[in-house]
């Protein structure tokens, strides 16, 4: 128990997110918002609306998990310190003279550091969501996965929804469907921590948090440096989709004659499924063809 | 009390929905989803999104009533058994080789059986919603009607809303307005069971459940066999709308001169109101003319 | 304490809203709904949907504050008396023969009286929201401001959202952004009453309620009589925006060279900011030019 390794991971899992990691999270979120087209102009025209959007970017995951558990969505406002912290970061990011913050943030090392620290907060959010959901529904493992996922990666859903209401985002079925890499890795983490919570994984939580955080930060920084959306799950997804949905292909002939109209699309993209995750374009082309 | 009839209805009202009626409900909901254009292809492309939509189709009413009562919308996920049941039905319905399920479901008797059993679950949902709302607001009869209605027929609202967010459904005021037959009959049942709950109907609940279920199943199956949207409420609705909104017609002359711009539409469709429910086309034509 | 002035304001702050002020509020809301294009025709075609919209207009603020605090949005339905009151006002407003209500409401004095009484209810709502939020989050002053604001001016948000879902309102970023005068004054009142609640304002609540109500009614009636959207906050807003966001202008040169693409809009509208509130057109023109 008191092996140095254990002490290290235990101390790591007890790290407080409050001042520094939260700041990194808010900084990355606000800068992501600022780089949206028209966001800077909007901040000058209507600071209140821009501030509201920035808060949604910073606290979206918590808001979504509150909605899903029927808790006050405004709870995050009760934590005045974090709100003021995020607000001041929003203020200096948008209204700093000479745009010093953007210039400083444009340096790659700064971005890497901030992004890495933001990924650390993601692990903490997932764990918090899973344990919080567990306090609601004992062993309701589906709820635990959903809440951990919502708190870790729900911000994008909230912000997309806000853009939808504001009319500056026209949704398309395609966009809605395909999960981002962040959503996938958060879902994976949520599943892992849920199994650990329900004692199906024989590993202590602080070790798991350490390993998952290292994995998150490593992949994130690698993706930022190489600027390639590397897919560590592509092969895994292929195998899974092959197992679950691919084996029907041997029945294609009978399917062909048994089905008539809309299911032809199904078979069409089922043939393109095994290579779908590997190359998006192929799928796109196939769907184009079948539509 | 112990008359055989009473015992029969009492035993009927104590029937458990769990394995078989729920399966029928899930089957009908999933098949309705599968027959939407592009749903089958979407299931191949993004199974997770298709599964999510299927869950909304299966548990939409409960989700809506949870939202309206500020209960966790995710509660239905805590009942793992039903979720796994619905998921497996979704899986075999979408990915069964040679599409055996669709072929089996294409036989009319199977559809009639499944639809009838689904209507039985509707009665149970209405009663559950009314009693649940009563536990919140003693004698808050409007809330009881609303919750019973939401749980019985709210699934379509939830799924429409999801399609709206996904952008694959462009709402029109017309669509939003006109209630489906299901919504009307569910509203009727919700009102009846609310009155029974508030002791304004001198009939025992199990008898009422029996009669209402028989009425639901009979009308549903008749509509499916004759393939005509028979309107058992048309005459009733006409009388009601005549009583409430029709008697102003004798004042049309003074209304004509008293009103100028927008109310002309009002008078225009008021003349077409008494026959509105009888023939939709007439109303459509009138509204076209007045718009 | 027992000065006649104190007694007057105390008695005023204890005035019950129930029959008369609520009626005025419902009347103004329903008439605002009726004057929307197509609302009268819609009431003839689908009375239920029109009634639902009218309820949203009458109780929207309460519904929004309930949603934000995770309370049942349907709670307003539990107060049957008010619901029936609002429903009957909706009924006579839409279906009264010869449209007597609209004719009576078309007289300016009636409108002034009703609008003034509606503004009185606004103060009561703000105070109710602030105190209610305070019971949730002790000294969560941001939450108190938000809830007071939502309950006082949230009806428009709810109704806009409903129109968005019904598809008869296409949102634009511009519309979403700029706050109406009502929203601004409600926000001001919410801030003031929150400070009073947190003992940062050395004034008794009943005095504050009296003064704020007088201010609300006076400005509202003045605006209705002069038919000009007078901006009592324009100069204040200019000063504030000058203080917060205007001082970066001296750095424009360095900002010019430091920024490249998207921030040009920012600087463009920053120059137009000090006069933005004074003349909307100038801002519009600038934004046009920069977009």
UniProtKB/TrEMBL annotation, chains A, B, C:
<keyword id="KW-1133">Transmembrane helix</keyword>
<feature type="region of interest" description="Disordered">
    <location>
        <begin position="259"/>
        <end position="291"/>
    </location>
</feature>
<protein>
    <submittedName>
        <fullName>Trimeric intracellular cation channel type B isoform X2</fullName>
    </submittedName>
</protein>
<feature type="transmembrane region" description="Helical">
    <location>
        <begin position="208"/>
        <end position="226"/>
    </location>
</feature>
<comment type="subunit">
    <text>Homotrimer; conformation seems to be controled by binding to diacylglycerol (DAG).</text>
</comment>
<comment type="function">
    <text>Intracellular monovalent cation channel required for maintenance of rapid intracellular calcium release. Acts as a potassium counter-ion channel that functions in synchronization with calcium release from intracellular stores. Activated by increased cytosolic Ca(2+) levels.</text>
</comment>
<keyword id="KW-0633">Potassium transport</keyword>
<feature type="transmembrane region" description="Helical">
    <location>
        <begin position="51"/>
        <end position="70"/>
    </location>
</feature>
<keyword id="KW-0812">Transmembrane</keyword>
<dbReference type="InterPro" id="IPR007866">
    <property type="entry name" value="TRIC_channel"/>
</dbReference>
<feature type="compositionally biased region" description="Polar residues">
    <location>
        <begin position="261"/>
        <end position="274"/>
    </location>
</feature>
<dbReference type="GO" id="GO:0005267">
    <property type="term" value="F:potassium channel activity"/>
</dbReference>
<dbReference type="Pfam" id="PF05197">
    <property type="entry name" value="TRIC"/>
</dbReference>
<keyword id="KW-0813">Transport</keyword>
<keyword id="KW-0406">Ion transport</keyword>
<keyword id="KW-0472">Membrane</keyword>
<keyword id="KW-0630">Potassium</keyword>
<comment type="similarity">
    <text>Belongs to the TMEM38 family.</text>
</comment>
<feature type="transmembrane region" description="Helical">
    <location>
        <begin position="82"/>
        <end position="102"/>
    </location>
</feature>
<feature type="compositionally biased region" description="Basic residues">
    <location>
        <begin position="282"/>
        <end position="291"/>
    </location>
</feature>
<keyword id="KW-0407">Ion channel</keyword>
<dbReference type="GO" id="GO:0042802">
    <property type="term" value="F:identical protein binding"/>
</dbReference>
<keyword id="KW-0631">Potassium channel</keyword>
<keyword id="KW-0256">Endoplasmic reticulum</keyword>
<dbReference type="GO" id="GO:0005789">
    <property type="term" value="C:endoplasmic reticulum membrane"/>
</dbReference>
């Amino acid at each position: 128990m008191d092996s140095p390794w254990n002490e290290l991971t235990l101390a790591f899992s007890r790290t407080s997110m409050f001042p520094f990691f939260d700041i990194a999270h808010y900084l990355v979120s606000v800068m992501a918002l600022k780089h949206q087209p028209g966001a800077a102009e909007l901040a000058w025209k209507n600071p209140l609306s821009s501030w509201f959007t920035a808060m949604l970017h910073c606290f979206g995951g918590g808001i979504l998990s509150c909605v899903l558990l029927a808790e006050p969505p405004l709870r995050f406002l009760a934590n005045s310190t974090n709100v003021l912290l995020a607000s001041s970061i929003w203020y200096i990011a948008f209204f700093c003279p000479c745009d010093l913050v953007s210039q400083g943030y444009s340096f790659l090392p700064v971005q890497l550091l901030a992004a890495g620290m933001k990924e650390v907060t993601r692990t903490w959010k997932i764990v918090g969501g899973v344990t919080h959901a567990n306090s609601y529904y004992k062993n309701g493992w589906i709820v635990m996965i959903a809440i951990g996922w919502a708190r870790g990666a729900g911000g994008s859903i909230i912000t997309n929804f806000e853009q939808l209401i504001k009319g500056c985002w026209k949704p398309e079925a395609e966009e809605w469907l395909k999960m981002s890499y962040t959503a996938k890795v958060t879902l994976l983490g949520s599943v892992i921590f849920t199994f650990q919570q329900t004692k199906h994984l024989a590993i202590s939580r602080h070790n798991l948090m350490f390993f998952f955080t290292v994995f998150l930060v490593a992949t994130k920084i690698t993706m930022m440096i190489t600027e390639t959306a590397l897919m560590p799950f592509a092969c895994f997804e292929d195998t899974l989709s092959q197992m679950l949905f691919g084996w029907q292909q041997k029945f294609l002939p009978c399917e062909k004659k048994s089905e008539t109209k809309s299911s032809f699309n199904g078979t069409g993209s089922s043939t393109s499924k095994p290579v779908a995750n590997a190359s998006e374009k192929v799928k796109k082309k196939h769907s184009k063809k079948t539509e």
